[in-house]
Design brief:
This protein has one helix and 14 strands. It is an alpha+beta fold. Among the domains are: about 35 residues, no CATH class; about 120 residues, Immunoglobulin-like (Sandwich).
Length: about 230
């Protein structure tokens, strides 16, 4: 029979430990069994790495969901912005609304040029200032000063027309001043036949030093008038 070799073997008297056999007999040397390798004979526990992997996957999935939601919200915002822009473009703004045309005053012809109103053509020959002017029996004193417009009136119609100095207006700072007339004025009331004309003057009582900008000629009190600069 083959004799066992020397070494550590389970103790026949106590299987929970080892006992040294010297090749011929059991010695009094004892030792515990070596601990089994990790995982041998024990249930396998899920590794932390797998848990970490699951957490990472879940976290990444959540981030993707958030990014999709943000992108969707951004697209909605863009759509809303485009819709608002289209709405704003379709509604005329106050700035783009048609503005009312500004009031344009009567046209004013250059100084010295002939102008026409009704059956008369008018031309300014010159101007003068004076504190007095001839009256019926004596000189007439101005309340301010007389501004005298020397003019030529021509009948361009086909019948006689009466010219009256009282129908003429002097323009100062946009305001109209009536003529100062009397029976002694040669232009107080004068009939002019077709193709003929007359020279005369029209006086206006104005504030001293005032600067007239234009005179407005009329062939009658109902005509539209024609302005010429002075």
């Amino acid at each position: 029979m083959t004799q066992p070799t020397a070494g550590w073997y389970p103790d026949p008297s106590n299987p929970s430990r080892q006992r040294y056999f010297d090749g011929t007999a059991w010695t009094e040397s004892y030792a515990p069994f070596p601990a089994p390798p990790p995982g041998v004979g024990q249930p396998v526990k899920p590794s932390r790495q797998k848990k970490s992997d699951k957490k990472w996957i879940l976290g990444a999935g959540a981030v993707v969901v958030v990014l999709i939601a943000i992108a969707s919200g951004g697209n909605d915002g863009d759509k809303k912005t485009v819709a608002e822009s289209n709405t704003a473009a379709s509604v005329p703004s106050r700035a783009s609304a048609p503005t009312k045309p500004k009031h344009v005053g009567p046209a004013v012809a250059p100084a010295g040029s002939p102008v026409r109103d009704g059956k008369f053509e008018f031309q300014v020959l010159g101007v003068d200032r004076s504190a007095t002017k001839e009256g019926v029996f004596s000189l007439q004193q101005a309340k301010g000063e007389f501004f005298v417009v020397k003019l030529r009136v021509t009948n361009i119609g086909d019948k006689s027309q009466s010219f009256s100095a009282s129908n003429q207006k002097l323009i100062i700072d946009g305001k109209k001043f009536d003529a100062t007339t009397s029976l002694s004025d040669n232009t107080w009331m004068e009939d002019i036949n077709p193709g003929l004309g007359m020279d005369g003057s029209v006086s206006f009582d104005i504030p001293p030093g005032a600067v007239p900008e234009a005179i407005e000629f009329h062939d009658s009190m109902f005509s539209g008038g024609a302005r010429v600069a002075l």
